[in-house]
C-alpha cells in the first residue's frame, strides 16, 4: 500500500526539506518525502545524476520500501533475481545449513539505470545540479543552508545523504571523517556478457583474503568484482591488479571477464568507512545512508540498509508531532540497529574460509530480512 500525500508539520505551510546528495538514498528520501506531501529540493554537487559503481544488490526489504513509495514495479523490471552461492578456490559450492533460499536472494540492479529511474520519480524540477552544500546554520524555526556559490536556502529540515565524505556530517558531528578500511581494495566493472556461465559465480572465497565473483544483469550485461583485505598497495594498472587478485580465486571465467574489460571501464576503490557516530541528528538536521554509517561493502547490503533508513525517517516525520521529536526517535531507532549491523558485518569480514563465510553471510542476511528489518517498524 502506498503512503498518501498528507504531511503537514508546519501549520498551513508544507514542510520544506533540502536533501544533500543525489545518489540512491538521496533520491529515494526525496521521492518518499514528496509522496507524503513535503516540498523537497535535492542538491547534487555534480553536473549530472550519475552512479558510483556498476551494479547494486537490493534485498526484499528495500524492494518493499520502493513499492511503498510507488517505484517498485519499475525497479523490478530492470533487475535480475539472484540466488547467492559461495565457492572456495577449489570450486566447491556452499550454502550454510539451516537457512532458506530467501536468505540468499536479492535483486541485482544496474546503478546507472536505477539512478535515472529514481531521478525521474523524484522529478527533475526538484533536483538542483552543480549545487554543493558547504555549511548550515540552525535557527528555532528553520535551518539556513549555505552553498559554494554563496547562495543561502532556508528549509524546515536538512537531510545529509551526501555519502561517506559527507559535508553535512562533518558540520554536524565534527571529528568523524571517513577513514580508510586499511588494506581493503576492490575492482569492479559492468560489461556486455561474453560467454561466461549463465548461473555465475556469485562469490568465491580464495587465498590471501581475496574474494570475487560475477553475475549477469539487466540488458545483456555482466557485472564482476574482486576485492582483497590486507592487500599490498596497488602499483600496476587497474586490470593488472584485478587479475593479480583473481588469480587467488582460481576462477577462469572471472579471469576471462577481467581480461575482456577495457581498462577505462574498470573501477578501483580504496574502501572507506564511517566510524560509529555519537549522534545522527540535531533539531533540524539528520544524516542518512552512507553519510551516517558508510560500511565496507563486503556484505552487499549497504544500499538496502540506506533505503530502510528512508522508511524509518519518513514514517516518523509523518507521525509527528513535530520535526524534533521525529528526529530524536529516528536516531534512537537507527544507532542501536547499526551496532548490530557492525557486529554481524565484522563476522563476515573475518571469515577464514568459504564455509564460514557462507554461515556468517546467511546469519547477517537472515537478521536483516527478519528481526532487523525496518519493514517491521
Largest sheet: 7 strands, mixed
- Corresponding CATH architecture of the largest domain: 3-Layer(bba) Sandwich
Coarse shape:
globular
Return Rg in Å. Answer: 21 Å
In CATH, the homologous superfamily of the largest domain goes by the name FAD/NAD(P)-binding domain
Strand content: 25-35%
| Stretches with pLDDT under 50, minimum 5 residues | 1-6
Number of helices: 11
The separation of the N and C termini measures 15 Å
CATH topology of the largest domain: FAD/NAD(P)-binding domain
Listing every helix as H and every strand as E from the N terminus to the C terminus, the arrangement reads EHEEHHEEEEHEEEEEHEEEEHHEEHHHH
Count of the separate structural domains: 2
User: Helix fraction?
Assistant: 25-40%
Number of strands: 18
What is the multimeric organization of the chains shown?
Answer: single chain
- What is the CATH class of the largest domain? Alpha Beta
Strand order of the largest sheet: 6-5-14-15-16-13-17
Which structural class best describes the helix and strand composition?
alpha/beta
Summarize model confidence as the mean pLDDT: 92
Amino acid at each position: 500500500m502506498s503512503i498518501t500525500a498528507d504531511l503537514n508539520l508546519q501549520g498551513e505551510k508544507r514542510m520544506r526539506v533540502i536533501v544533500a546528495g543525489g545518489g540512491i538514498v538521496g533520491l529515494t528520501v526525496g521521492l518518499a518525502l514528496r509522496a507524503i506531501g513535503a516540498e523537497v529540493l535535492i542538491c547534487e554537487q555534480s553536473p549530472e545524476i550519475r552512479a558510483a559503481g556498476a551494479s547494486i544488490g537490493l534485498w526484499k526489504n528495500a524492494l518493499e520500501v520502493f513499492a511503498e513509495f510507488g517505484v517498485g514495479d519499475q525497479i523490478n523490471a530492470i533487475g535480475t533475481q539472484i540466488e547467492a552461492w559461495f565457492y572456495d578456490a577449489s570450486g566447491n559450492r556452499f550454502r550454510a545449513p539451516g537457512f532458506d533460499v530467501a536468505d540468499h536472494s536479492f535483486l541485482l540492479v544496474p546503478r546507472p539505470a536505477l539512478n535515472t529511474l529514481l531521478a525521474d520519480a523524484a522529478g527533475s524540477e526538484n533536483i538542483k545540479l552543480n549545487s554543493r552544500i558547504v555549511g548550515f546554520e540552525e535557527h528555532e524555526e528553520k535551518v539556513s543552508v549555505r552553498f559554494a556559490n554563496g547562495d543561502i536556502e532556508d528549509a524546515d529540515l536538512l537531510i545529509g545523504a551526501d555519502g561517506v565524505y559527507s559535508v553535512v556530517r562533518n558540520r554536524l558531528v565534527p571529528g568523524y571523517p571517513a577513514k580508510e578500511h586499511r588494506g581493503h581494495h576492490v575492482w569492479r566493472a559492468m560489461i556486455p556478457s561474453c560467454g561466461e556461465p549463465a548461473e555465475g559465480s556469485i562469490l568465491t572465497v580464495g587465498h590471501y583474503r581475496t574474494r570475487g565473483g560475477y553475475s549477469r544483469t539487466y540488458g545483456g550485461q555482466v557485472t564482476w568484482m574482486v576485492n582483497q583485505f590486507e592487500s599490498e598497495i596497488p602499483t600496476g594498472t587497474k586490470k593488472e591488479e584485478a587479475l593479480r587478485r583473481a588469480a587467488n580465486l582460481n576462477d577462469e571465467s572471472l579471469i576471462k571477464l577481467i581480461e575482456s574489460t577495457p581498462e577505462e571501464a574498470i573501477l578501483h576503490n580504496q574502501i572507506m568507512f564511517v566510524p560509529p557516530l555519537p549522534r545522527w541528528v540535531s533539531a533540524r538536521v539528520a544524516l542518512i545512508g552512507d553519510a551516517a554509517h558508510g560500511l565496507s561493502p563486503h556484505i552487499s547490503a549497504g544500499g538496502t540498509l540506506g533505503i530502510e533508513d528512508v522508511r524509518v525517517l519518513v514514517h516518523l516525520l509523518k507521525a509527528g508531532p513535530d520535526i524534533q521529536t521525529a528526529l530524536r526517535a529516528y536516531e534512537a531507532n537507527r544507532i542501536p540497529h547499526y551496532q548490530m549491523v557492525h557486529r554481524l558485518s565484522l563476522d563476515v569480514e573475518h571469515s577464514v574460509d568459504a564455509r564460514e563465510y557462507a554461515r556468517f553471510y546467511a546469519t547477517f542476511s537472515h537478521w536483516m530480512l527478519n528481526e532487523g528489518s525496518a519493514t517491521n517498524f
